[in-house]
Predict the structure.
Amino acid sequence: MANAIPDLWPDIEQSKDVLPVAILREQAAALGKKTGHLLEGRVNTRTDEDGNFNHSFYVVAPTLDNYSYRLISITHGAEPYPITVPDPQIIDPGARSFRIPSVHGTLRISSEKELLDYLREVLNSEKTMRIVGSLLAQVKAAT
Amino acid sequence: MVTFLYWNTNRKSLHTEIRALAEAHDVDVIILSEFAGNPATLIEHLNSGRIKDFQFAPGQCERIQIFTRFPSSFLTPKAEDDWVSIRLLKMPARVEILLVAAHLPSKRFRDEHDQEHLSTTVARTIMEQEKNVGHQRTVLVGDLNMNPFEKGVVNADGMNAVMSRQVASRKSRTVMSQAYPFFFNPMWAHFGDRQEGPPGTYYYNRPGLVNYYWNIFDQVMVRPELIDRFDSERVRIPTKIGETSLLFGDGRPNKRDFSDHLPLLFEVEL
């Protein structure tokens, strides 16, 4: 009788890292709370043919027939970092930022802290405020 | 018949030229990118001429401005981002369509992988919206900053846009068990000298071994469901407005006075 083939795996533990998608989902939930659920955040995830995870964050206006604005998209491989941001938000030309290029270009994020910094900057940008404010006004005008 | 005009105005206002084009071709929908003018001023120009009743149809995508010769409420934004505005065009007693207006990133700032990635994102958003509205009567128009033969336009998981009406009529292509709907891209027929119009919409004499000189970055494409309502013979790249040429004497677009891109006209039977 042949010898049993051994299980070569060690004990497997789930990673304790906070996943980028969890951080995005948290921001999505926070948008709903902040706007009395007149606007909602939505995060869609897909995998591409190279095995990368692509997460997109949308601002959604449920009462405007689910109008959506894609605010942020990030991509990472099997490991959560590094992240690439293929189309970082076009920040207002006057805005000063060390994180976000004022001209277009792919952005690379290496850690959870950098991701939080990036999201903070995008979510607080004049442009995001203008989009969210305009959608909120339209939602209220339509109700 | 609804007539559409698309023009990347090269960070200029070109109010007079846009109005003249709209009048000359009886345009119903004007879609602009890199428009540096003021929408209100353009409305004044448009409505002071032979044709009137133009309205601004606002959206959140700052790279795209749309004006309609019918109530702008007929053109509802459905999904947008920094590069694309997807609107539902629903006019009384007419067939409704999805209008996708795009101004994708320039090659000066992005490589082809970035462009392909964004094409995939745009394609997925279009499919989502088509699912939401329950049809695939979709027109995509804009400055894609890619030629019709580039991967972001051709890839199945990108625009999946093909040059042949007959191929597009097969409706979709399945790759690795995933079906991707076609677009029919009539712009292929506008390359080179063997047709009436200019050899492309955008001229760029780039350094390096590969140089096409003429490119067709400005494109219109339709889903198979709209093919019978779309006459590709009526896709035009005008080079004149009245007696005024939009070209330099050597045939390149006159970017000094007008735009480095030529306008695009097309019609859809709704």
